[in-house]
Amino acid sequence: MKKLLIKSALLVLLVVSTLIGVIYFMPADDNLYLAATLDKHRLLDEVPQPRIIFTGDSNLAFGLDSAMVQRATGYNIINMGLHGGLGLNYYLDELKPHLKKGDIVIIILDYQNFFFDGGGANTLVEISIFNPKILLYYSPKGYYNYLISLPLAFQRRLRGVVSSAGGDMAFLRSNFNKYGDNVGHLNMPQPKLLVFKRPMPKKVNDNMVKIYNDFYDTWTPRGVRVYVSFSPLLIQDRKEQTEALAELYGDMKKRLKPAVIGEPTAFMYPEKYFYDNLFHLNAGGRRVRTADLVRAIKKIPELASVPSR
Amino acid sequence: MFFISLQYLIFFVLVVCVFFALPHRFRWIFLLAASYFYYMTWDPRYALLLVTTTVIVYVTALLMQNRPAGTRKLLAVASLVANLSILFIFKYYNFFSGSLNDLFSLIGLNYSVPSVSLLMPVGISFYTFQALGYTIDVYRGTREPERNFGIFALYVSFFPVILSGPIERSTTLLPQLYQKTEFNYERVTDGLKLMAWGFFQKLVIADRLLEYANMVYANSSMVKGMPLVVATYFYMFQVFCDFSGYTDIAIGTAQVMGYRLLPNFKRPFFAESIPEIWRRWHMSLIMWIRDYIYIPLGGSRVNRPRWAFNIILVFTLSGLWHGAQWTFVTWGLINGVIIAISRMTRDMRNWVRETIFGGIMKITPAAYFSLSAACVAVAALGGAAGIAGIAGRAAAGVGGLAFLGIGVLRTRERAYGTFVNGLKKFWMIFVMFQLFAVSAVFFKAKSMAQGWYILSHFSTSNIPHLFLVAKPMDFIITIFLIVFLLTIHYIQATRGSIRQLVKTKPLLLRWAIYYLLVMSIIAGMRQSSGFEYFRF
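Above: the input entities. Below: the structure tokens describing the complete assembly.
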């Protein structure tokens, strides 16, 4: 038994060293899109209160004009939106060490997320290449998904996927502005939009509900206010989509503890507002979506403007 | 909890550690609890059916002891009917009601058989057959009924085999559950290596092949020709690697704890006929069907038409066992028909084959050299003479070289004999493979219509569309993996167990092989969607 344990441990050590070596020590360009996480975390440390922290996937990175929200509400804005492969669990985990009493967190996820359990995938590993400290804050589910995503991250590193920036100029760390918005795509020519008929969730995945509510239960007593709102949706079959959204909205109102800002149908847009895929808005779309979001936020009295001290 | 999940690895390590830490008398209790826990991770409700089957089979077997033949028969039938009814209701009822409804509407009857909404428990076909085998063994007097309910429950639910086999026999697995096993380094590491090979087959080969096959079959109406053929070939290797991978993990898991399970595969792609492939593919099911259905029907001791009927019947049933769909039934039926025809035409086919290959044996070196010269002439002058284009001339050049080589070989009698024998073997394997591919279309197809469509669109070439659903590099990697698999099989067939071979190598080389195996699993694994045979 002892012999087996020693030999197994040696083999595991060899394998883990190779994985860690390839994933973390192969060169990776500092200007890669995911490296923007470092700047976003700096914003969390440095941006003073009163502040609203938007968190979610790339619908926020590409489709939110934080300056407009700041002008309209008076709150300082931090846009944490980055990548859909990270999952709700991560979006909330990464806020943990930075949240302060009085912070407002607005979670906006693309509808696709509601089908899944919020666990994230290989991006959980890849983002830790740039910000290894984040590993300290993963929840158990985050660690589990991190572990099972190691092989894919390893394969992607071997193929050079997370090595050099510059493939697509819209996806660079240097494109993010002082709020955390990606503005690199705003002046770029409109690429061909990749469209597929997307299925619409009619309810939120049960595990996601738990993550939302656990976060709410943990942070609301500490003076953090938590809200959810909606991502932009490409109009495809309006009737079918509206019906699904009505059910989803009902489910969110019923089961989620964070208050819901706006209604999902208010964020449905035609193709001309989308950039490269169904999740990313172009300059025009970003403007319209932010205006719609501001309108919805203004309807929530405590968010409409900074309360006077 | 899939075998290929991190949860299973953790579960496996914990179970093995506790198993060896416990005194022998408590091990079966622990394994029973672990097996039920494992099974219930799929859905705790499944356990109710498992307990029901276990109790029915256990009690009826006990009641059979020392009873008159008539009573024994009655009890055996009761056990069979009860268990098959459970299987029927959960797996086949909707298939039959749907088929009846189709029939009624076809003949204009306005009657609808209701369907039921039931969750099909995973592994139900496997553990039901394992339990039924025990009932029949006790009825036949092949074995005494098991008195210890816990041990018997463990036999039915043993976690390495409950979901997808191998379908164990009461005469082989049950006695082992009483035997005390010690920790044995050689045996344990052998089991672990087998598991690693299973993971490789499943995660690296099967899942990669499935991507192509799924993509083509999901869009089959939009493609024709080679993509359909290649997708079907890939699917055959996929199903093999998927199921053989699962089986190796199961056998390896059991071996680590000191239990020997039945083998399920023996290099099926080297079979030279359809009857032979069925002695090499899903062997535990085929042996079960042979012992409990085919032989009682008369086996090969009946007249030829009856034998053919029996063979077609058992293979059709085997198709039905796989799934409640007409596609599976057709798949079984095709295999049964091919086996029946192959047996009936065996002498004639042997004669034709011997005549052709005997003729090839007699071709003189001069004939080969003449053929070579003719080909070279076409290659050199074909363009000017307007006989052949560039491709034709290139092919003629290659042909010329090949004939020259064979001509030289022909001058050495023994080497030429080996070559012709190899050619004959290759031809037989090739024919077997094509026939098996025809049936595999229905194994993969979602409907009969899709199966017919694919078969009827096999014949066009349409090579450019091969890369519509896969990048050329992915395609090349896939082909390489198939060749690698066949090479491993070839080494196993000619030089014996690879694990034993590796053991004879120097330490550094051994470690390099183990390290490469693990790293290639990590570097080559695909997003897995579970095992094919779990749905059966």
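Note for the figure: The longest helix of chain A spans residues 2-25.
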